[in-house]
Design goal:
There is one protein chain. About 80% of the residues lie in helices and about 0% in strands. It is an all-alpha fold and about 80 residues long. The protein has two domains: about 1-35; about 40-83. The radius of gyration is 22 Å and the shape is flat. The termini are far apart.
């Protein structure tokens, strides 16, 4: 993993929490009779889903703004060299 540059922490976390997550998912699917829409019908689930979507959207917008700012700086630098 060191050669590829991957940190060990996330792998250990996934190996520990993976089976627990799978067990909980199976229990939840049994409660909803195999219907995954049951996860989104509860108000708390809707709030958590909205929060997750908001976090992903905010991170994406921040990344896009960073990329645009980097391109703007490159354009300013190239304009300065031409003069």
């Amino acid at each position: 993993m060191k050669k590829a540059g991957y940190p060990a922490g996330p792998l250990v976390l996934a190996l520990i929490l993976g089976p627990l997550l799978e067990k909980s998912l199976r229990q939840s699917m049994a409660m909803f009779y195999g219907n995954p829409a049951g996860f989104f019908e509860r108000p708390i689930a809707a709030v958590l889903l909205a929060g997750a979507l908001l976090a992903v959207t905010a991170a994406t917008v921040r990344w896009i703004n960073t990329v645009r700012a980097g391109k703007d700086m490159e354009q300013v630098e190239t304009l300065g060299e031409e003069i």
